[in-house]
Amino acid sequence: MQNLTQVADTQPVIVEHPIECEAPNDQISEDNHFTSNIKYLIVGLAFGIVFVKAEIISWYRIQEMFRLHSFHMYGVIGTAVVVGILSVWVIKKFKINTLQGEKVVFHDKKFHWGNVIGALIFGLGWAITGACPGPLYAQIGSGFSVVTVTLISAIAGTWVYGLLRDKLPH
User: Fold this and answer.
1) Quick one: which of 10, 14, 9, 11 has its CA closest to 28?
2) Are the beta carbons of 61 and 73 closer than 8 angstroms?
3) Is residue 103 helix, strand or coil?
């Protein structure tokens, strides 16, 4: 699969991606893997702390949400959606580049019923376990070691999806 990327005001550059890459990163310049990992570690730790302090890793908060007993999680998710929408709008409106000076490319998404089915399975798993992939690590880091079962199950589910991918609706 190939994607065209504009770098500043120069000619388009073809970025090669493996066939199996459905969410390609169009970054052209190479990052130092060590510094990238340190950046991601720091951001991950910050998110983990925010998740714990905001109580969004709390099994009870998640159950309140699915039972429609509390607005707390809907407020957090709604705020994240609004911030995401505003961020994308600002990036497009002011043509903000990446830290490496490359143009940010937004790819069009096609509707697939597989996304609906996957979302239903994801939501069911979230409701049953009281955890989704983001807070899993914060829950484990907070001492809820039983959540490792959920983590292993999520990894197994991803592996099974990889096996069945060609037979599923896309």
Assistant:
1) 14
2) yes
3) strand
